[in-house]
Design brief:
With 128 residues, the protein is mainly alpha-helical. It is built from six helices and no strands. The longest helix has 40 residues.
Length: 128
């Protein structure tokens, strides 16, 4: 009888843990969705702290990794993964890349430096 009780308690514990993890994932997805909606309401001129640095970091990394291979296919492939190494600004970086993907593909095919590329998508690294 005690073995059966242990199995039942263990089962309830596992089910509760899985449910809690699922609810936590839903909460995180919901928070990100609300954040995306809030960010979309902001005017393009409004920038977040660190956006300039994140943009220049990502564009600089892409430029150095691409080297002379600036084909659009190579640029597209690298744009998908460049934000993985940025740390806590990954969300902003991914959002920037997603929003300006086509423009960035064109810009990274030029000889422009990272600050110029960032300014072309509206991320101003110098006070206007």
């Amino acid at each position: 009888m005690t073995t059966m009780l242990k199995i039942i308690l263990l089962t309830f514990l596992l089910i509760g843990t899985v449910c809690a993890m699922h609810l936590e994932l839903l909460r995180v997805d919901d928070d990100e969705e609300h954040l995306n909606e809030s960010l979309d309401l902001l005017e393009p001129e409004v920038e977040f702290p660190g956006m300039c640095w994140a943009c220049k970091w990502a564009m600089g990394r892409l430029k150095s990794s691409l080297g002379t291979n600036t084909s659009k296919e190579a640029v597209k492939a690298m744009l998908g993964t460049v934000c993985d190494g940025i740390g806590f600004l990954k969300f902003l970086c991914n959002r920037m890349v997603k929003r300006y993907f086509d423009v960035l593909v064109e810009e990274l095919s030029t000889v422009d430096n990272p600050a110029i590329i960032c300014s072309h998508i509206g991320v101003w690294c110098v006070k206007k």
